[in-house]
């Protein structure tokens, strides 16, 4: 499991940013494509919004990898 930290001053991180921060995609464009293709799940549900706000405790799954969002 990969851990992605939300910056101290922020309440959330966006889905596309989390995928990039976890090094699961190389760019925002790549993040947009995999999300639009329905390949990313947030808390067990397929998510199609790149700008989906992720909060502490959310779990993202993509390409066999799991990301835990931590504040």
From TrEMBL:
It comes from the Bacteria. InterPro entries: S4_RNA-bd_sf. GO terms for molecular function: RNA binding. Keywords: RNA-binding. This is RNA-binding S4 domain-containing protein. It comes from Roseburia porci. The lineage of its organism: Bacteria, Bacillati, Bacillota, Clostridia, Lachnospirales.
């Amino acid at each position: 499991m990969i851990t992605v930290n939300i910056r101290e001053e922020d309440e959330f991180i966006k889905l596309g940013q989390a995928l990039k921060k976890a090094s699961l995609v190389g760019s925002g464009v790549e993040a947009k494509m995999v999300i639009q293709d329905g390949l990313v799940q947030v808390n067990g549900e397929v998510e199609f919004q790149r700008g989906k706000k992720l909060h502490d405790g959310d779990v993202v799954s993509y390409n066999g990898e799991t990301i835990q969002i931590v504040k």
